[in-house]
Amino acid sequence: MSNLVYLMCSLPSLKFGQVPPITMDEFTESAKNQLSAKHFKKLEPVDIYQATDSEGKVSLKSIAVMLDEMKEDMTELRAAKAQRRTPNLAKLPLAVVNANPLEREKLIMRWQWEELDTIQSGETFTLTEVMVYKLRLQILNRLNSFDKERGSQVLASVVNPPKKKEE
After folding, report:
1. pLDDT greater at residue 156 or residue 110
2. H helices of 93-147, where?
3. What's the CA angle centered on 101, arms 22 and 45, to 5 degrees?
4. Using 50, 70 and 90 to split pLDDT, how confident is the model at 140?
5. Half-sphere CA count of 3, side-chain side, radius 13 A
6. Is 50 helix (H, G, I), strand (E, B) or coil?
7. With bands split at pLDDT 50, 70 and 90, how would you rate the model's confidence at 163?
8. pTM of the entire predicted model
9. Going by C-beta distance under 8 Å and a sequence separation of 6 or more, which residues neighbour residue 117?
10. Which of 9, 41, 85, 140 could share a disulfide with 20, CB 3.0–4.6 Å?
11. Are residues 129 and 120 in contact, defined by beta-carbon separation less than 8 angstroms?
12. Phi, psi at residue 58, to the nearest 5°?
């Protein structure tokens, strides 16, 4: 446990919307140095976009539930849009319905952040707290990866793909 305490005390605090104060590589290196091999093995596959590791094992049931609920709501959003009806969302905020894709993504990340608050509640200096920290760092990295200019270039390449030269 003392390694968990030291690790969590040595990591910078995270706030939604901020530039990540630590890289994922720095976090991974700190975790690898401070955690037991058993704990690090449990932490390594934790991913905000995937509920299970390569062997199909759930890293933390509450995280898997959160991700499943999000996926169900996203499926409902798509189905409702195709059927031209109002979606019946179970967990995601209704604001995502009329938001543009970028704002929708940000709203979903905010929801994930708040759900992680619930998962972490009462979990002080536990592996769950370290897992939540990693997931939040992933959210911040994703949030800060949005670049208007680069996004415009990607959109332009999709809408107006370069013509292939015929040989």
Report:
1. 110
2. 101-120, 127-143
3. 40
4. very high
5. 12
6. strand
7. confident
8. 0.81
9. none
10. 140
11. yes
12. -80, 125
Residues with Cβ within 8 Å of residue 89, at least 6 apart in sequence: 73, 76, 77, 96, 97
Q: Which two tokens stand for residue 33?
A: 């140095």
- What is the number of H-type helices and E-type strands within the chain? 7, 0
Asked if residues 124 and 82 have their Cβ atoms less than 8 Å apart, the reply is no
Contact criterion met (CB below 8 Å) for 52 and 58: yes
Amino acid identity for residue 30 in this structure: S
Reported as a single tens digit per residue, the pLDDT across 69-101 is: 999 999 999 999 999 999 999 999 989 998 998
Cα 122 from Cα 118, distance rounded (Å)? 9
Integer Cα distance of 48 and 67 in angstroms: 8
Residue in the structure block whose two tokens are 């019946």: 88
The tokens of 117 are what? Answer: 């608050």
Residue 8 amino acid letter: M
Rounding to the nearest 10 degrees, give the CA dihedral for residues 138, 140, 143, 145. Answer: -70
